[in-house]
Amino acid sequence: MKNRLKVLRAERNWSQAELAGQLGVSRQAINAVETGKYDPSLPLAFKIARLFDLPIEEIFDDQFNQNG
Amino acid sequence: MINSTKMGDGERREKSRIRRWWAVILGAPLALPPIFYATHHLFWPDGPFLDGALNPRFAIVAAVSTCVLGLLVAVPYHRIIDEHEERSFLWGATVGFWLMAFGGFAWFFLVAAKLIPMASFLIFWLACILVGAAVQLWLQFR
């Protein structure tokens, strides 16, 4: 699943460790999400959305949006 | 919106979590040998320690304390790790389990046909754990 986490994090000038601490997960988890190696659980996705004050679908793209 | 005004708090929380992670991971391996040695030295100072002929009472104490310490490590470990680490752990455990289940049978057939030598169960068990751990660490840190 594609996501804009790296861009959003860079806009706020946060390190992966900073974001990880804010979300209560490991830095490796943030790296894995950013590189698309790991899709976060629904609770973590909601937590990310709340942290960035954005709807989930503006952060994560399941590619169904593009195809209809 | 989650509190994001105090920047740097997140990094501190992450460092604190890492410290707790390492304390749990290294706690048992570092704690067990001194416990074993001290117990053995206190109660059976004349008995053999690591030469393959353990005092039976010491062996029972060591087995029970290993299981108790294992529980004391497993519970906080699974409370500390996040969902990504949990997923890595589950895949590592899955690979280790299937290797033990089917690898053991495969080994048995080959041994029964005298194609390969009899394996030590301890070595086979350790190999399964090491392969599982390697998978877990690869998924966690790749």
Question: How does this structure look, described?
Answer:
The complex is a heterodimer of chains A (68) and B (142). The longest helix of chain A has 11 residues, at 42-52. In chain A, helix 2 packs across helix 3 (27-34). With 68 residues, chain A is mostly helical. Chain A has a two-stranded antiparallel ribbon with strand order 1-2. Chain A has one domain (2-58): Orthogonal Bundle (434 Repressor (Amino-terminal Domain)). Chain A has 5 helices and 2 strands. Chain B has 4 helices and no strands. In chain B, helix 3 runs antiparallel to helix 4 (121-141). Helix content of chain B is 78%, strand content 0%. The relative contact order of chain B is 0.08. The A-B interface holds A 12, 14-15, 17-29, 32-33, 37-38, 40-41, 44, 47, 50-51, 53 and B 1-2, 4, 7-15, 17-18, 81-85, 87, 140-142.
Overall tally of domains of chain B: 2
Name the helicity range of chain B. Answer: over 70%
CATH C-level label of chain A = Mainly Alpha
> What series of H and E elements makes up the topology of chain A?
EHHHHEH
Task: State the distance separating the first and last CA atoms of chain A.
Answer: 16 Å
Q: Count the domains of chain A.
A: 1
Strand percentage of chain B lies at under 5%
Structural class of chain B: mainly alpha
Q: Over the alpha carbons, how many angstroms does the gyration radius of chain A reach?
A: 11 Å
With helices defined by DSSP (H or I, 4 residues minimum), what is the helix count of chain B? 4
Structural class designation of chain A = mainly alpha
Most residues in contact: chain pair: A-B, 27 and 23 residues
Biggest beta-sheet profile of chain A? 2 strands, antiparallel
What is the topology, as strand order, of the major beta sheet of chain A? 1-2
- From the spread of the alpha carbons, the general shape of chain A counts as globular
CATH superfamily of chain A: lambda repressor-like DNA-binding domains
Assembly type of the shown chains? Answer: heterodimer
Mean pLDDT of chain B: 85
